[in-house]
Specification:
Blueprint lengths: L3 H8 L3 H10 L12 H15 L4 H17 L64 H37 L12
Helix pairs in contact: 4-5
């Protein structure tokens, strides 16, 4: 577990910037060394996508859709205060993982299938099924996949520019050439 200061240092961002992200993405705030590696991995992903010029509003829209999908799938019933980002940092089966929450849906993200109806909570059943109240996990998944596709296309477009900028910055980081002392007249 990490402190807020550790997180700011690891992400190379000011505490004010990180506090703003926490507020805008409605993330829990903890005292002391209570931030998990998954929490930091989530913020790292947001910062990386912002580097690729993805609008924060687009990221927040996708974030809300992914959290809604996970609620419809009852992932929120496991009792963790950070249930929506506990999978961040996992690296296996990327073809099955949501973009921001990084949750593994268990099937490739085609939008054609989804295992619904899982509920890990000890809560009373709803009076009406979610889809009867207008909540449809496949609809939410498809909306999220549309935004995800736009983000990935934008990243692919921006990637050559980021690579060029990285090469250019390496040139700036080189120490200046020292002039060799020559013969004096």
């Amino acid at each position: 577990m990490h402190s807020f200061a550790d997180m700011a240092k690891a992400l190379n961002r000011s505490p004010i910037y990180l506090t703003g992200l926490q507020k805008r993405f409605e993330l829990p705030v903890f005292a002391g060394a209570s931030y998990s590696a998954a929490y930091i991995a989530f913020l790292c992903g947001i910062i990386a996508l912002r580097t690729f010029d993805i609008a924060e509003e687009t990221l927040r829209d996708l974030w809300q859709l992914e959290k809604k999908l996970l609620q419809l799938l009852h992932v929120d019933s496991i009792g963790s205060p950070t249930w929506f980002l506990d999978a961040c940092g996992a690296t296996t089966h990327s073809e099955r993982r949501l973009l921001l929450t990084n949750h593994d849906l268990g099937v490739p993200l085609t939008g054609g299938e989804l295992q619904t109806g899982l509920d890990f909570a000890d809560s009373p059943p709803e009076l009406f099924p979610g889809h009867d109240m207008g909540e449809d996990a496949l609809r939410v998944l498809r909306e999220g996949l549309k935004i995800r596709a736009r983000i990935l296309a934008a990243v692919a477009t921006e990637l050559p520019h980021v690579r060029t900028a990285t090469k250019w910055v390496k040139f700036l980081a080189k120490p200046p050439l020292r002039s060799k002392p020559g013969p004096r007249n």
